[in-house]
Amino acid sequence: MSVKREKALQQLSDDVLLFLHELDRLMKLPSTVGRGKQIAKCCNWLEMQNDRLRFGMLGVDYRKDDKEKAVTKLKLERSL
Q1: Using CA of residue 58, residue 63, residue 67, residue 69, what is the dihedral sign?
Q2: CA nearest neighbour of 55 among 44, 42, 69, 67
Q3: How many angstroms separate the CA atoms of 24 and 26, rounded?
Q4: What pLDDT score was predicted for residue 14?
Q5: Closest CA to 29 of 12, 15, 47, 42
Q6: What is the pLDDT of residue 33?
Q7: Domain total for the chain?
Q8: The whole model's pTM is what?
Q9: Is-contact 54 60, C-beta < 8 A?
């Protein structure tokens, strides 16, 4: 595996770990509009990290990227 790819995978793993830790912290708070906004901010951050990897390392063309189609396909493949 190339050093660049290994670094990108490590960064993704770190990002997911940070996201899950923050989401766990937020879910323990009382349900409020503010908490909902924090969760949305956290999810947007993770989506940006995913886009960085998809477009930068995996070569997905952002002009042709159809995330809804990709998610539907993944759900069928993984029986979710």
Answers
A1: negative
A2: 67
A3: 5
A4: 93
A5: 42
A6: 97
A7: 1
A8: 0.77
A9: yes
Contacts of 74 (CB under 8 A, 6+ apart): 80
- Determine the structural domain holding residue 60 and report its residue range: 3-77
**The pLDDT of residue 58:** 85
The runs of H, that is alpha helices, within 1-66 are 3-27, 33-56
**Can you say how many angstroms the Cα of residue 64 is from the centroid of all Cα atoms in its chain?**
19
Radius of gyration of the chain (CA): 15
pLDDT at 45: 94
Q: What is the mean pLDDT of each run of 10 residues along the chain (80 residues)?
A: 86 93 96 96 94 88 89 90
Residues 40 and 17: their CA atoms lie apart, in Å, by 17
Output the six-digit token pair for 67: 């995330």
Name residue, tokens 């906004």: 37
